[in-house]
């Protein structure tokens, strides 16, 4: 009998807690925002690649020039190897290998630096979007704003992405 009473009391407490939580959830104002979609739709997002390319223009040009020289030497070796002496072939092959090594040494870090700069610029845009989300959440008294990418289903009336996009474009 004591076990039954304890179970009954525990069930009552659990039911009460669940009802309270459900009632509180019904009072909350929830919004969903597509942060990635907003960030990608901003004009500045399209400009990031151009800005970064301009920033690394000299290094890109140097790599392109060396790449053209490498391709020329490879083609020359293929075309003329039949008429070249062994010493000439060896010399040309050494040039090709040296140039290939130089290209690899320059291309890897250049790509990494460009990618790092693009990510920095994208984080700046993401910061603007997040500021807009916070402002709208505060102004319109949202209790919770979820990211659309983590929400499998949402009714369209809870999506505040267009409001956030307007806020971000207005802030610039």
Q: What do these coordinates show?
A:
- The chain is mainly alpha-helical and 172 residues long.
- The protein has one domain (2-171): Protein Binding, DinI Protein, Chain A (2-Layer Sandwich).
- Helix content is 78%, strand content 5%.
- It contains six helices and two strands; from the N terminus they run H-E-H-H-H-H-E-H.
- The protein has helices at 2-27, 35-41, 43-55, 57-80, 86-139, 161-171, and strands at residues 30-33, 144-147.
- Strands 1-2 form a two-stranded parallel ribbon.
- Helix 2 crosses helix 5 and helix 3 (43-55) packs antiparallel against helix 5.
CATH homologous superfamily assignment: Skp domain
Please state how the strands of the largest beta sheet are arranged side by side: 1-2
What's the pLDDT, averaged over the residues? 85
Q: Please mark out the parts with pLDDT under 50 across 5 or more consecutive residues, or reply none.
A: 4-12, 14-23
Rg: 31 Å
Care to count the β-strands? 2
State the share of residues found in helices, binned by percent: over 70%
